[in-house]
Amino acid sequence: MDLLAHLPALQVVVPMLSAPLIVLLQPRGLAWAGATAVALLSFAIAVALTVAVLDGQTVEYAMGGWPAPYGIALSVDAFSALLLLVVTGAATAALLAAKPSIDQQIEAKRQPLFYSAWLLVLSGLVGIIVSADAFNIFVFMEISSLASYILIAGGPDRRALPAVFKYLMMGTIGATFYLIGVGLIYMMTGTLNLADMEARIGDVTDINPILVAAGFITIGLALKAAVFPLHAWVPNAYTHAPHMVTVFLAACATKVALYVLIRFDYMVFQTKLDDHEIQFAMFVMPLAILGIMIASAVAMFEGHLKRLLASSSIAQIGYILLGVSFVSMAGLSASTMHIFNHALAKGGLFLAAACLAYQYRDLRLNQLGGASVRMPWTCAAFVVCGLSLIGVPGTAGFISKWMLINAALENGAWGWALVAVILVSSLMAVVYIWRIVEALYFQEPIEGNIQISEAPIQILLVTGIVAVLNIYFGIFPQVPLELANSAAALLLEGSR
Amino acid sequence: MTPETSILAAIVIPLVGALAIALAGRISANLREAATAITCVSLIWVVWSLLPLLMDGGRPSIEVSEVMPGLSIAFTVEPLGMLFAALASGLWLINSIYSVGYMRGNKEQNQTRFFACFALALSATIGVAFAGNLFTLFLFYELLTLSTYPLVAHKGDAATIRSARIYLGVLLSTSIGLFLPAIIWTYTIAGTGDFTTGGILAGKLNDPEIGLLLALFVFGIGKAAVMPVHKWLPAAMVAPTPVSALLHAVAVVKAGVFAVTKIIVYIFGIDFLFGASSSQWLLYAAAFTIVTASLVALRQTNIKRLLAYSTIAQLSYVVMAAAILKPLAEVGAAIHMVAHAFGKITLFFAAGAIYVASKKTEINQLRGIGRRMPWTMTAFTIGALSMIGVPPTGGFVSKWYILAGAFEANNLVAVFTIIASTVLNAAYFLPILYIVWFEREKEGGKEHGEAPFLAVLALCLTASLTIAFFLFNGPVIELESQVVKGLG
Lengths: 496, 488
Known about the structure:
The complex is a heterodimer of chains A (about 500) and B (about 500). Chain A has about 500 residues and is an all-alpha fold. Chain A has helices at about 5-25, 30-55, 80-105, 110-130, 135-155, 160-190, 195-200, 210-225, 235-240, 245-270, 275-300, 305-325, 330-360, 370-375, 375-390, 395-410, 415-440, 455-475, 480-495, and strands at about 60, 75. Chain A has a domain at about 275-495. Chain A has a two-stranded antiparallel ribbon with strand order 1-2. Chain A is globular. The mean pLDDT of chain A is about 90. Chain B has about 500 residues and is mostly helical. Helix content of chain B is about 75%, strand content about 5%. The chains are: A mainly alpha (about 500), B mainly alpha (about 500).
C-alpha cells in the first residue's frame, strides 16, 4: 500500500479517530501527550502534502475508490496545502505550549474531554480544507464549530458562556445560510461536487436561484469568517476563551471559512456567471476597507489585551479580503500570503498573551505594569510579533503588506487611495501595538503583582520560536511565497 | 576575511554584541563594559578593514536573500556608506568610553538595557550605511528608529514617555506614510531600487512628479529633520546625553541626511535632477530650515535644546549641499557629515559632562564654569568654533566645499544662506563662550571640578579630532571624490 497516496484521507482521519481515544487517557498528562502527538502527526502529514503539491499539481483522492461525481472526493492543491500548514501548525504550536496554561485553567478530570474536543476542531478544520464537495464542507464545518464552542466555553471564565452562545447563534445562522445556498445549487445542478458543480452551472437555464445561492453562501461564510460587519461574535469569544484556545482559533479558524468563501467564489461562480467578479469586488471591497479602518480604530481605544488583539484580527481579515477583491493574480497571492503571515503574527501575540495570563490574573492594559522586568523574554517576543503585525520590514507581516500594496497599485489611480488605506491602518496598528508596549515596559507594577516571574519554559519556548519564525519568514519568505503564487494561479485558472 | 564576509560581520557583530551585553549585564557591570569594548573594537576593525579596498575603487557587495523577485536584502559598500560606517563605528568607541563615565557618574538605572540597545542601534546604522538598495535601506532605517526608542525613553517617567512617543510617532509615521510610498513608487516605475551610479530614474519620470517623489523621500526620511519634520529631534533630548551625542548628532540624524544624499546621487542622479525644474524646492526648503532653526536656537536657554536646533540647521546644510547638485557640493555634503559629527558630539559630550559634574542644564547657569572645568570647556569652545566654521576646525573645510559648489552652480541662495547662518551660529555660540570664560560665577554655587575621567577623556579625543580633521582631511576627500567622478 502506498501510504503517500492516502495522505489526504489520513489528514482528516487521524485526528478524528484519535479524538474518542483521547477521552480514555485519564491519567494526568497522558491526554495532553496523546493530543500533541496526534497534532504533530497531522502537521507532518500537512508538510508531506505540501511537498507533494509544491510544483503546482493537485493531489486527488476518492474515498473508498468511488470516482468523483458519485463518491466522496478529497483534493489538495497549493492553496489548501498552505491552509493545512497554518491549521495544523497552529494546533501543534498551541498544544506544545498548552500544558501549563491548560493545567491552570481546566481541572484535571475534564482535560481528556477538552483535548478530545480540540482534536475534533482540528479534524473539522482540515476536513473543510481537503473536501472537494460542498456538503462535506458543511459537515466538517459543523464538527469544527460545535467542538470549538466546547473549547471556548471550557475555561473557568463564566463570561465565556454568553460569548459562546452568541457565537453559537451567529455560527448556526452562517452555517444554515451556507446550507441553503448549497441546497439551491443542488436543486438546479443535481451535484454537490465542486468541480462538477462548476461544469453544470453553465447549463442551468434559470440563473436566479444560482444568484440567490451565491448570496446566501457569501453571507453565510462571511459570518463564519467574521467579515466586518458580521464580526460581533469575535471579540468576546476570543477574550474569554481559555488562552491556548484563543491561540489556536485566532490563528486559523476564521481563515478556514475565508478559504471556503474564496474557493467557492473563484472555482464555482466566477467561471460561469456573467460579471460575477465585478459584483463580488463591489460587494467585498467596501466591507474590507470599512473593516480595516473601523476595527483598527476600535483596537486603538481598547483597554483589554486580548480584546484589543481580537479587534485587530477583524481588521486583518479585512486585508485578506481586500486582496481577494482585486480579482487578480497579485491580489490573490497577497491575500494567501497574508493568511499565512497573519497566523504567524497573531498566533505569536496570543501566545505571548497566554504567557502574561499565566502570571497576571487580569489582562487589562493598566494592570500589566512591570511585565518587562519580570518577564523580559515574553515581552521581547510580544514586541517582535507586534512589529510583524504592524508590517515593519524584516518581519513576515511586511511581505504580505508589500504584496498587497503592489496589488492595489495595479488598479491605477484608485489604487493609490487603497494604498493610503493600507498605510493609514498600518499607522493605527503602530498606535495600538505601542499602547501595549508602553504598558508592558513603562507602567509601574501595581501592588500584589510584585512577585511575578517569567512564564513556564514550555510556553515561553514555543512563543520564542514563533517570534523567530516571524523574522525568518520576513527575510526568507520563498516557500510560502511559492505556495501563495501557485494558489493564486490555480484560483484564477479555475475562474477562467 | 573576504570583503563580503566583512560586510555581514559588520552588521552581525553589534547584534551579537547586544546579546553578549545583555547576558553579561546579569553577571557584572565590568564584564558588560568589557563586552561593549570588545564589540566596539571588533566592529571598527571589520569596518575599517574595508577602507583600503574602497580607496582603490572597489565596490564589494553581497546579496543575503531575494525576498521577492526584484526585491532583495543586499549590501553594497560605496564611498558615502563607507565614510558613514567608519564614522559611526569609530565614534561609537569614544562614545562608549564616555557613556561608562556618564552613566556611572550619574548612577543611571537600567544600564544593561542602555548598552544593549546602543549596540543594536549601531547594527542598524551600519545596515543603513551599507544598504545596496532602497528596500534594505528602509529595513534598517526602521530598525534604527525602533532600537533607539528605548534609549530615548530611558528615564521612563511620564514626561519622557510623552517625548519618546513624539519621537517614535513622527519617525514611524513619516517613514510609513511617505518614505514607503516613495519606495514603492520608485520600484513600480524603475523596476528596481538598487543604488546605481548615475541614478535609475532618468527618463522614467517627468517634471511635476519628480518634485513630488523627491518630497516624499525628503519628508519621509524624518531623520533628516528638514522642517516641518523636525519636532522629534528636540523631543529626543530627554534621552541621556550619550544617546543625544552619538545618535542625535551622529548615527540617527546622519542616517537621515545620508539616506537623502544617497537617494539624490544614486536613485535620481544629480545630472537628471539638475535638469528638472520641479526639484528646486528642496534647496529653498533646506535654506529655510537652516535659517529658521538657527533663529530658534538663538532663543533657547537649555543647552541640549540649543544643540538640538543647531543640529537641525547643520543637517540641512548637508541636504542643501546635496541639493545644489554639483560635484563639489556633493563632496561638501559628505565632508560636512564628518565635520559636524566631530564638532557636535564634542558639544554634547561637554553638555553631559557639565550635567554630571554640576547638574546644570541651562545656559545662564554656566557663568565662569570654564575655571572649574577647563578641559571640558576648552573642548566645548573648539566644538562651537567648528559649528561656526572658524579655522582651524573641521567645520571650515566642509563649508569651504559647500561654498565652492554653490559658486560653481552660481547658486546665490545657497551662498547667502551659508553666510547668514554663519552669522547666526556665531550669534548663539559666542555669548555662551563669553559667559563661560569671562563672567564671574555666582556666589554660593555647588563646589565641583571636572566630570569623571572617562567622560573628559572622550570629549578631549573628539575635540582633537575636530582640529585634526582640518589638518588631515585628504583621504576623506579623495574617497568621496569617487562618488562624483566623471559627473558634472
